[in-house]
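Hi U.,

Before I forget, here's the chain from the pilot set. I'm dumping it here mostly so it's searchable later in email.
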Amino acid sequence: MDYLTVTEAAEALQLSVPTIKRYIYDGKLRSAKLPGGQHRIPRSEIEKILTPDEGRESEEPGPTGEDRLAVIERWLSDLQAEVDRLDSTMQVVSSYCARLAGDEEQPQGAPGEAQRLYVLGTGCTKCDQLYELATQALVVLGREDVQVERVRDPMDIAAHGPVLTPALVCGDQILLSGRVPSAAALREILEEHLEPA
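Structure:
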């Protein structure tokens, strides 16, 4: 009998690997478990799902078209968020390279800017999350004296160097870039880098 790995089964059914595992654990797909814990799915199980028999009464139906559509929609949503983030980063890198080619002087933080935070990002979901987290962290820390501003223009972002977005800047120092930390981690970063009130 021919067996498929979980990944191969997912590709054959055009589903995600977690969905295939869920079908195995729910009993919708029969599998053989190897000593190392890996599952192998008989090809006949895949063929039953791909070519349903009209006359066969099945107690354990396979994935429906709606299941497949939900997986595809979730996958596309995740891909779009990643494309938006990469597009934002590429705009920043392009603007930074244009500044270097023009031999323009990089602006430095002005004195007294240490009490101002900048969230760098052209507007992706993660940039919005970082802005919200930074605003909430300042409230929790009781730092009403510190302002948070959004910087969306790629040329303005490029003034800080080739930075991955979303990024958080205090004065002229990049506190983090390319990720959204947990609320607790962000509070620690801010406590460490903000001047005393």
